[in-house]
Amino acid sequence: MGANDTTAIIVEIAKQPGEQVRKGEVICVAETTKSIFDIEATHDGWITFLAETGGELAVGEPVAAICDTPTSAEEILAFIASVSAPVILPQAEGDAAASWTMKAEMVARQQGIEIQQVAAVFPGKKITEADVHQFLAEQSAKPISVTAAVRDLVNDPYPAGRVQRLVIVGGGEGAVQILDALAKIPGQHAVAIVDDNATLHGRSVAGVPVVGPVDATHVKQMIQQNQADGVVISVSTSIPFRQRIFDEWSAAGIPFANVVHPSAQVGINAAIGAGNVILAFCQIGPCATVGNNNFLSAYCSIEHHSTLGNHCSFGPGVITSSRANIGDRARFGTGIFIEPHITVGHDSVVGSGCILWSDVPAESVLKSKLNYAIRQKKVKR
Amino acid sequence: MMTASPNFFTSTDQTAEHFYAQMLLIRHTEQQFLQLFAQGKLNGTVHTCIGQEASAVAVVNALDLQRDVIFSNHRAHGHFLAYCGDVEGLLAEVLGREGGVCGGIGGTQHLYTRNFYTNGIQGGIAPCAVGAALAEKMQGSGAIATVFLGDGTMGQGVVYESMNIAALWGVPILFVLEDNGIAQTTPKQQEHAGDLTTRAQTFGIQTFTADSFDPLALHATAVAAVGMVRQQQCPAFLAVSCYRLGPHSKGDDTRSAEEIAMIEQRDPLRHLELQLDPQQLRQIQQAVEERVRLAVEQVLERPLVATNTTGLTIGRGEE
Amino acid sequence: MSQMLTNVESLRGALHNAMADDSAVVVFGEDILDPYGGAFKVTKGLSTAFPQRVFTTPICEGSIVGMANGLALRGMRPVAELMFGDFITLAADQLINHAAKFPAMYNGRVTLPLVVRTPMGGGRGYGPTHSQSLERMFCGVPHLSVVAPSIFHDAGKSLRAAIASAQPVVFIENKLLYPLRQQLHSTATLQHEFLDAEAEYPTVRLRNFGAGNSPDVTLITNGGISRFLPSLLQRLSDEEIRLEALIPASLSPLPPIAPFAAAAANSGRVVIAEEGTTSNGWGAEFAARLYESCMGKLACPIVRVGALPTVIPAAKQLEDEVLVSETTILNAILKVFS
Predict the structure, then answer these.
(1) How many whole angstroms separate alpha carbon C71 and alpha carbon C65?
(2) Fold for the domain defined by C7-174
(3) What's the pLDDT at A32?
(4) What are the residue ranges of helices labelled H in chain C?
(5) Which of B35, B161, B200, B242 could form a disulfide with C63 if both were Cys (CB 3.0 to 4.6 A apart)?
(6) What pLDDT digit, counting tens, does each position of C111-131 carry?
(7) In angstroms, rounded to a whole number, what is the distance separating the alpha carbons of residues C43 and C36?
């Protein structure tokens, strides 16, 4: 069901009342704002329906009960009533015991931190907006660790007038796409490309020189000598390569940057890690989380409250609905739709044209069964 | 050929020939309106009082036109012309030409000049007239107010609220009921229970009744009613029985030919024609015809009322 | 500083002074004579002081306003009282088809200095036909002014301006404001100033923060809602939320929109609160005007708050449910802020 759905309508009941059902059989079909889905039997047993076709049920309301013996609806309802505890609703007017002002909480949220983090630093004090700002200032003044360096590059604004200088790993078509995006981003600029193909060395891609092989020592030297500020990987076809370079170089203290095409939209409270490439017309919805080192081709949408892991590669037009949960190293083809609340496990491969309405276990390979015929056009001569 | 002096139509002489001239002026002017409408030169609508002119002329001439206040209704051309004789001002107002009394904004139903006010809402003018009369009384001007109501309007509650207050507070106002027996297309019998002429009496308001068939007799009754209101500083009610010869506005007459023929027999103009010398009659008729013809000609030559680009000055005065 | 007047004291004083200053001022309405002095006591003492110019009328709202129209056309300055704002529907014809029409349809050749005073608003358990805020039905009528002072306005001064005006004015009072003391000056925690002190019916700007800061949220409201503001501004101040409240006294026509648009663009977040229902209302009009002026400068859509679209119940707990409260406004402010 969609994150915003509070009700579902039963559109079809697939079993007779009192019929014996087996676990996994479809017992009825329900409709929400975003999809139609099957409801399956969770156990073996005798089914008693508590809803009717056309009925609208609130989330959490029972559709049917499956019992070890045939049981009447009245008996089931009586049982449910006997075990239900009173529901306590959260207070509408906020927590009276909150030890921070509403303003402080909102500023913290806007800055991507939890107010509790701040509260922990000022024990026994009602946290104010000023405390949050102080907390943020102290955070950014701390010595740069590896992760802090990544964060620094990714999230924090650069001092005025300074452009982030990037080294691009790989000089192929992915690099061309990144360079196209960078041409439109005032605050980022490519200074060098590294590629293991020796025939490219000494040449340039869209005016950016290919300076040598993919070599951590060389790139780290460029950074230490203040010739570059960060790295991004342009290779989208080899996920093991992406992961290896990202993991090894991060460990070596080389910072990774994000490249986000200016036409992409990033919603409020969305969190984006490091080393991601997000190309034209992508959307990262509000409150979505994107890990590290993902490559999103044009027109991909990671819808609100979805979570994307690390080192994934997306072809164009991969659209998730709300609260998708995508693991690490997943690879997606072109034109894929993902229903709300769907999980795609680690290391899965999803072929072009798939529509995902059920969870995908790790290490799955999905191939769409969509088919079509090609025939010769009849042309009158 | 101008045979008549300008004051022929505005003289306060209260003779048969002067009443006849004023009534004929009203008749001709209104007939011009119907003709101009048919020619497509008149925008909107007009409600004519053809057949009822005697009521306007007889009652208005009973008032002190220097100071008394008149409130009239949607059928006000007769009252207006009897009050001021400004044919051009009325024509221009209705035709949207320069020099209209309200700059072309009010049109036929919303006329104003000096102490003369009209509005097209049925009955709403009754309390306004009471308020105006009260103001005159408080200011000690010696003026009274008159309000013209139709029989249809006697269905409105606010009329009786006004009578109640006027009687209660001793407000110098003359309520004039012009009872033409029909409200737009609905005969009085289908609208009103009981007798309209007795309605004011229940408030203790002195009631006068008259017939518009004889303008001079009607005028005498109106003079008596006005005199009482002014002297005793109290309201009076004058019920005038009259007939509307024309339609409510245009093309909405559902009465039978027989009924109209009967009404034409009761035309007050005919009654006066019998009393006047034939030569004098022809002279008046020629003068009135000429007066209206020239006025129409002259007003149609005037430019249309100027628009302005924003429309924001409409209703905010001449500037 | 001397003790501030209550709203009813301010209005009563203004009526006394207006009658003393100008013998053309006439006051009338239902049950306004002493010793009763009117249902809400605004006219108390008036008939004793000016017996010739204060009248008690029969129950006939249409004719009360109709008579006032006639008086106004003939050189008087009538101030008519309608006992409850709900009864104004009975005078709608006189206000819309007479008062607002005479000067304009006579091409500006007459003036109509009319004031119709009436108390609106619920919260007193009077039920569905004695608790409404119907002023929005008269907003937007050309040539008719609708004025509603708040507790941050000098109500008496506003009433004097209405009496002095050549235009017809519907003067809205709020039943719950009558006993409250007017607040016309800044305090330690609340900045009070007029946006346009020279205007006939000025707009008040209230802030719970000092100079040098910019507001988090702009609240636009009027009349009776102002009773919530002292407490609301304090609560928001405790939460470090900087609120700027703009309170026009002229509901119709709306005051010039520019300063409101500038304030809205400054905070980027606007809540509009009104006592009556919101559909096709004053707040809707205000929001539309703001969108016309500063659409791209707002961080989030304007939120309107008003009474629920139903009758106003008599039972207290039900009435509370239908009417705007401090909490509903607070929640709207938090909604636009987060």
Answers:
(1) 10
(2) Rossmann fold (3.40.50)
(3) 64
(4) 7-21, 46-49, 61-73, 92-93, 102-105, 155-164, 229-238, 258-267, 282-294, 316-322, 326-337
(5) B161
(6) 999 999 999 999 999 999 999
(7) 9
Of A92, A101, A109, Cβ closest to residue C239: A101
Q: How many domains does chain B have?
A: 1
Q: Please state, in angstroms and rounded to a whole number, the distance separating the CA atoms of residues C76 and C70.
A: 9
- The domain that contains B49 carries what CATH number? 3.40.50.970
Residue B8 is assigned to a structural domain of this protein: no
The ipTM assigned to this model is: 0.94
Alpha helices in A166-276 (DSSP H): 173-183, 216-224, 239-251
Contact C58 B110 (CB under 8 A): no
DSSP C210: -
Chain C residue numbers touching A102 (CB-CB < 8 A): 239-241, 334, 337
Say whether the C–B interface has 3 or more Cβ pairs within 8 Å: yes
Q: How confident is the model at residue A5 (pLDDT cuts 50, 70, 90)?
A: low
Report, as an integer, the average pLDDT of B122-141. Answer: 97
C130 as an active site residue: the answer is yes
Asked whether residue B268 is domain-assigned, the answer is: yes
**Whole-prediction pTM:** 0.69
Whether residues C240 and A109 touch (CB distance < 8 A) is answered with no
Residue-range definition of the domain harbouring residue B170: 14-301
Cite the residue boundaries of each domain of chain C with CATH code 3.40.50.920.
191-337
Phi, psi (rounded to 5 degrees) for A313: -130, 130
Q: Which residues of C touch B317 (CB under 8 A)?
A: 107-109
CB of C51 within 8 Å of a chain B CB? The answer is: no
Chains B and A touch (3+ CB pairs under 8 A): no
Please give the class, per CATH, of domain C191-337.
alpha beta
Gap from B169 CA to chain C (nearest CA, Å): 10
Q: Which domains does chain A have, with CATH numbers?
A: 7-83 (2.40.50.100), 102-142 (no CATH), 164-251 (3.40.50.720), 259-366 (2.160.10.10)
Q: Minimal Cα–Cα distance from C63 to chain B, Å? A: 5
CATH 3.40.50.970 residue ranges of chain C are 7-174
The pLDDT assigned to B195 comes to 95
- Count CB-CB contacts under 10 A for residue A134: 14
Q: Is B56 within the bounds of a domain?
A: yes
Q: Which helix (H) or strand (E) holds B207?
A: strand B206-211
Q: What is the pLDDT of residues C285-332, one digit of tens each?
A: 999 999 998 878 898 999 999 999 999 999 999 999 999 999 999 999
Contact C70 B102 (CB under 8 A): no
Q: Is residue B132 part of a domain?
A: yes
Of C240, C327, C338, the CB nearest to A93: C327
C55 touches chain A (CB under 8 A): no
Among the residue ranges A115-129, B158-172, B219-233, the one predicted with the least confidence is A115-129
**DSSP structure class, residue C181:** B
C333 interface with A at CB cutoff 8 Å: no
The pLDDT value given to residue B310 = 52
Q: What subunits make at least 3 CB pairs under 8 angstroms with A?
A: C
Per-residue model confidence (pLDDT) at position A82: 57
Instruction: Out of C16, C98, C130, C143, pick the active-site residue.
Output: C130
Residue B243: which of B55, B95, B64 has the closest Cα? Answer: B55
The residue count of chain B comes to: 319
Which two structure tokens, joined as six digits, stand for B178? 């012009």
